Amino acid sequence: MKTILNMKLKNIILAAAAVLMLAAACTGGAKKTLISGAIPTDYLFIDTLQVYFEDSLLASVPVDTVSGAYKIEIPSDVTKLAIVATPYFQIPFVSDGTALKLSFPGDDTPKLVAAKEGETGLTDRMNNYMKALGDIQNSMMSVVQEYEDSGMTEEEFMAIADTLFAPQYRQVKDLNINTIRQNPDNVIAVYALMSSEIDDDFPALLKDLSPEIRARKDIKALIEQLESVGATSVGARFLDFEASLDCNDLDGTKVHLSDYVGKGKFILLDFWASWCGPCKAEVPYIKKAYEKYVGDRFDVVSVALNDEPDDSAIAAVDLGIIWNSLVGAGSRPGELYGITAIPHLILFGPDGTILARGFRGDDIEAVIAKFMQ
Question: 37, 268, 280, 313 — which has fewest CB within 10 A?
Answer without folding.
Answer: 37
